[in-house]
């Protein structure tokens, strides 16, 4: 009996094996389509965000260069920028539902590239040939990221996310991250270690958790839209609360860093640290690189390094703003007429070019425009033999 049934069993198992083999190429092609959809959504979102931020920046510039008394939030251009900003953030958020986390996070370099190009075209920022080389490096790195990005896909159901949350690689990663965060926070608060690397490492550690939770929330929403409801799982709301909390604390540390350091330094160093931390979190939580061959992993790492170098060079070549220089208000001097119709003191623009008053770049001006600092000595009555001061400031009453 056993010998007679064994051939039948073998014949029955053959169609199953062939069916499993025939399904695999279809799954691979579908996963590549998901990667492409996610990458395109992320690129679209970052492009729209760059346009939105530059529109709001241009709105501020127009108000500062005119006599328009309106606040910036009362202009149509600023609201248009806000609408595009929300649209871009929605595009980036939805991209996490399709592509792996380690592929989406490095594509934020598109925002830096787009901001640089928009600044040349619309805001007339000056560029040098090496700036174009920097943009080229960032574009090449982005291409390598999309081409050799991880191809791991699984449905973001409540059971899968809970299983990843209690897995030992992620628990070990969370332990190391919590220890690092506490140490950095101690040095930052207690030892006044206000270094840019310390602050942005805090931002990067929080940002890695934000990226993990964003992918979980976006993936569960997508699965729910497809018909398998996931919003009744408690893990969805836990991830949602963690996403909001980490994003708020991340914005707080970024605001503190912007008060101490230049925005170009924050953009470059923050991009490198945040991308590295997010890729590490994606590799431990979602196991993004499981099943990938060594060549794809090496090419993906090379794409990250080239994108890091390109973003660093783009932000490094940005011209740093000139520190504020105080000026004398014309209406404070008796007998001088005010230049403004409404009686507000203004700083006259030199060379007939637009500037933020005293924030104009004076590097190329002749030396005759350079303000001189002279000692002011009040007239005092002293002994006859005392030497006279270089000059005296006499106080005159209005009667004189």
Question: H/E series, N to C?
Answer: HHHHHHHHHHH
The total count of helices amounts to 11
Tertiary shape: globular
Structural class: mainly alpha
- Strand element count: 0
Low-confidence stretches: 1-27, 321-333, 335-370, 395-400
Gyration radius, to the nearest Å?
Answer: 30 Å
Strand content: under 5%
- N/C terminus separation: 130 Å
- Summarize the main sheet: none
Average pLDDT: 76
Helicity level: 55-70%
How would you describe what is shown here?
With 400 residues, the protein is an all-alpha fold. The chain is 63% helix and 0% strand. The chain has helices at residues 2-64, 76-95, 101-104, 109-121, 129-147, 158-165, 168-189, 196-225, 234-260, 263-285, 294-316. Helix 1 runs parallel beside helix 4 (109-121). The longest helix is centred in the first third of the chain and has 63 residues, at 2-64. The N and C termini lie far apart (130 Å). The model is unreliable at 1-27, 321-333, 335-370 and 395-400 (pLDDT under 50).
Summarize the structure.
By secondary structure, this protein is mainly α. It contains eleven helices and no strands. Helix 5 runs antiparallel to helix 11.
């Amino acid at each position: 009996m056993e010998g007679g049934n064994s051939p039948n069993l073998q014949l029955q198992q053959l169609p199953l094996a062939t069916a499993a083999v025939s399904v695999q190429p279809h799954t691979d092609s579908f996963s590549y389509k998901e990667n492409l959809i996610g990458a395109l959504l992320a690129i679209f979102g970052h492009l729209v965000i760059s346009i939105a931020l530059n529109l709001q920046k241009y709105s501020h510039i127009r108000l500062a260069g005119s006599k328009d008394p309106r606040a910036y939030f009362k202009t149509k251009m600023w609201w248009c920028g806000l609408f595009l900003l929300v649209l871009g953030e929605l595009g980036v958020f939805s991209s996490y539902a399709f592509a792996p986390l380690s592929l989406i996070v490095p594509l934020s370099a598109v925002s830096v590239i787009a901001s640089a190009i928009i600044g040349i075209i619309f805001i007339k920022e000056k560029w040098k040939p090496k700036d174009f080389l920097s943009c080229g490096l960032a574009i090449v790195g982005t291409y390598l990221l999309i081409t050799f990005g991880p191809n791991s896909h699984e449905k973001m159901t409540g059971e899968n996310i809970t299983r990843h949350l209690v897995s030992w690689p992620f628990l070990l990663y969370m332990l190391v991250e919590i220890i690092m965060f506490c140490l950095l926070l101690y040095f930052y608060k207690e030892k006044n270690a206000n270094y840019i690397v310390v602050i942005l490492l805090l931002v990067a550690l929080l940002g890695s958790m934000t990226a993990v939770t964003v992918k979980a929330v976006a993936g569960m929403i997508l699965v729910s839209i497809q018909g398998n409801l996931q919003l009744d799982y408690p893990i969805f709301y836990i991830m949602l609360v963690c996403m909001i909390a980490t994003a708020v604390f991340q914005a707080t540390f970024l605001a503190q860093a912007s008060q101490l350091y230049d925005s170009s330094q924050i953009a470059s160093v923050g991009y490198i640290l945040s991308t590295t931390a997010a890729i590490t979190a994606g590799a431990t939580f979602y196991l993004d690189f499981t099943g990938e061959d060594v060549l794809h992993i090496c090419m993906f790492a090379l794409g990250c390094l080239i994108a890091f170098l390109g973003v660093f060079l783009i932000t490094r070549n940005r011209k740093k703003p000139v520190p504020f220089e105080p000026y004398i208000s014309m209406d404070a001097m008796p007998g001088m007429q005010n230049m403004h119709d409404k009686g507000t003191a203004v700083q006259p623009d030199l060379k007939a070019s637009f500037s933020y008053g005293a924030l104009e770049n004076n590097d190329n001006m002749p030396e005759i425009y350079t303000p001189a600092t002279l000692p002011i000595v009040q007239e005092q009555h002293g002994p006859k033999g005392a030497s006279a001061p270089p000059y005296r400031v006499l106080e005159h009453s209005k009667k004189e």
